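Budget justification aside, the reviewers requested a transparent look at the raw inputs and outputs of the sequence design task funded under Objective 1. We therefore reproduce one unedited record. The lines immediately below are the structure tokens for a 136-residue chain.
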């Protein structure tokens, strides 16, 4: 069972933490986000596009432009960020066989893994950017 993010998910979480930093009150450029969070600058615009498309981030062009959170950091959860950039979870997929469970009955561990998936998502939904970006 994998509990790790893809690179895209990793970069999205780090970029959102940069935008949620309570010490930042202006628009951040791709360059500033990339530098602050050690993200490859060439890859970041694609991640930011996904975050803008899902309504988590606002973008502004021009010299004073960049990115900022579209909602307060208290209203954005880690699950929101991950769902914006990671492939959708297939809860029907059997952890034993790799195909949808239920075609020929559910496997012996399906219900247990499904409960773990639900609990994992609930835990991520309980972590806001504000709580994660707080110093200390």
């Amino acid at each position: 069972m994998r509990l790790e993010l893809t690179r895209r998910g990793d970069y999205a979480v780090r970029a959102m933490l940069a935008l949620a930093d309570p010490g930042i009150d202006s628009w951040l450029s791709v360059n500033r986000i990339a530098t602050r969070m050690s993200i490859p600058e060439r890859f970041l615009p694609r991640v930011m596009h996904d975050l803008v498309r899902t309504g988590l981030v606002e973008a502004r062009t021009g010299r004073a432009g960049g990115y900022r959170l579209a909602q307060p950091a208290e209203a954005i959860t880690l699950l929101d960020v991950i769902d914006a950039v990671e492939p959708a979870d297939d809860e029907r997929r059997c952890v034993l066989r790799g195909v949808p469970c239920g075609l020929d009955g559910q496997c012996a561990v399906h219900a247990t893994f499904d409960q773990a998936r639900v609990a994992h998502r609930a835990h991520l939904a309980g972590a806001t950017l504000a709580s994660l970006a707080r110093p200390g």
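Strands lie at 57-60, 66-69. The radius of gyration is 17 Å. Computational costs for records of this kind are itemized in the attached budget.
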